Every structure is written in C-alpha cells, then in structure tokens.
Amino acid sequence: MKFNQNILLIVIVLAAISVGDSLKCGVSHVSNERILGGTVAIPHQYPWMIYIIVEHDPLETNENAKKVYGQCGGILIDDQWILTAANCFVEHTQGYRVNENGPKTLLLMGAHNISDKKTEHWLTVHPEHVFRHEQYKNTTTSDNDIALIKLINPLKFDLVYSRIAPICLPSVDDQIDKNNCETIGWGRTTIDGGYKNRSNTLRVAKVVMYDHKECVAHGRRVNDLKVCAGYLNNRPCKGDSGSPLQCRNQNGQWVAQGIVSYGPTDCVGDKPSVYTNLAKFITWINKIRDAN
Questions:
Q1: Do the first three CATH levels of 47-165+283-291 and 181-279 match, i.e. the same topology?
Q2: Which stretches within the chain are classed as H helix?
Q3: Quick one: the chain helix, strand, coil %, rounded to 5?
Q4: What one-character DSSP code corresponds to residue 103?
Q5: Where is the signal peptide (predicted)?
Q6: Contact at 8 Å (CB) between 130 and 86?
C-alpha cells in the first residue's frame, strides 16, 4: 500500500509540474527542433497560436450576396486575452459588415491542421468583446494596427488543454537574437486562388528582424510603431494578419516582438513584411486588460 501511495504521489507531482510549466509564457512542450523555410511546423509546437475566423454579413442593400469569411492569426497572451491585428475587424469589401463579437467570430486554440476535424482536437471559443485600438484608422499608414480579444471565460491551463499556453510579451530585460526569429500562420501559400490556397497546416518560416535603417535599405519606411522582418522569400501572406513575429530571449522563451500588419501585395519580392511593434503597445495592452 505504501508503494502505491508513493506512485500516486509521483503522478500528482508530475501532473503539477506539467500544469505549472504550461503557465510559463513562451514555452513549447514539443521538441525544440524547428522546421524552417516556410514549411510545416511541428504539430502543437506553438501553443499560443490562434486561428481566427471572422464572419462578414451582407448589408440590407446587398441582400442577395452570400456571407463571406475572413481569416487571421492571433496569439494568446494570458488566460483570457488574445492579441491580433485591428485590420482583421475592418470590412474590406463594400456592401458587408463585420461581426466582431459573440458567436459570429470563432477562435480555434490548440490547432495544427484546421481541415482535419476527425483527428484534431482543438478548442473552439468565442470572444466576449473585441477592442480595436482607438487610433487605428485603416489608412495607408496602418499605424496602431492592433486589437485585443477578450474571451467570455478564462482558460484553465491544465492537463486537458496542455496544447494551449501563452506567449511572452516584450520586456526591457529581454536579450533578443534578432537574426533568429520566426513568423508562423495559416495564410495563403500562393497569391492566386483566394483563401482556397491557404495552408491547412500551421507553417513556420525563419526571418530576420531589422532596425529602421535596415528597413529603409530593404524598401520599407516605418515609424516607431512598426518593425519589419524578412528573409529571402520567407514572409506572411494573405490571411496571416495578426500572426506573430517571435524571437527567443536569453531564457529560451518565445517573445512576441510584433504581429503581422502588412507586406508585399503579391507576397513575394525583396521587401520585408511590416509588423506592429508590440514593445510600443504594452501600456495600451495593460490599460485595456485592467479596465475590462
């Protein structure tokens, strides 16, 4: 009996360790081996990655039109909040309106292959509210392209949802290797064919994070609210808005340095993609979370 009690104690301790580790931001419980170059990621290697489906309803003046759906990426930053891009919740097609809140928007957590409903076991949740940055104007500058999504109920990071964990936000103490960063998402793999050419499986690509002078040298003019990154033809494409630019810190944790805002319209070429600079929005993020 004593032997069995010891075994039970060991199991409980191991379970507690597993749950406790999942609360630490920027930690993957999958092998550290990475598949780079715009190829398929290891399943569930990035537990903070969220697939977002936004429903667009036709206006009354467009009553014969069918509903359309937009896709974006997002990142979990704690048990009740997701970061994404504000442009995900702006109507880009005339005659439609975006349904931001409630059952019209779907958030898939812990997903890898979003077309495989039989063997994949993701968690589907709905937002309580979407908070777009109040100064995002959907202009050509794309300044303040950031939004926070609050979940209806906080997540419980336990053994059942071990595939779900938050990513870290930037800190002044971080030491980041900007030459060894990644961007991930389910966006299109080619510009042709619309969203039919999205990737069903989460993909990852190595990118280099540039400073402002380097951005200009690579054909991008950005301000302090943005950062740019690229490497060869590794870049996000349509459907990747809100997905992260992530780099490891000195502790080996993944830190979200940016979220996809925009890039070359043809998703190829030498120009790097532009990301919202999250380090400049920590105060805004905390303000929204504290007030809601």
A1: yes
A2: 2-22, 212-217, 282-291
A3: 20, 30, 50
A4: G
A5: 1-22
A6: no
pLDDT in tens, the chain (292 residues): 333 444 333 333 333 334 444 468 999 877 554 443 457 788 888 999 999 988 777 776 766 777 667 789 999 999 999 999 998 888 766 666 676 665 578 898 998 888 887 667 788 888 999 999 999 987 667 899 999 999 999 998 775 567 899 999 999 999 999 998 999 988 755 555 555 566 788 988 888 898 888 888 888 888 999 999 887 555 555 657 899 999 999 999 999 999 998 865 555 566 788 999 999 999 999 999 999 9
d(C-alpha 143, C-alpha 50), whole Å = 23
CATH 3.40.50.10840 fits 181-279, yes or no: no
CATH topology of domain 47-165+283-291: Thrombin, subunit H (2.40.10)
**What does the domain layout of the chain look like in residue ranges?**
47-165+283-291, 181-279
Which tokens belong to 156? 């419980």
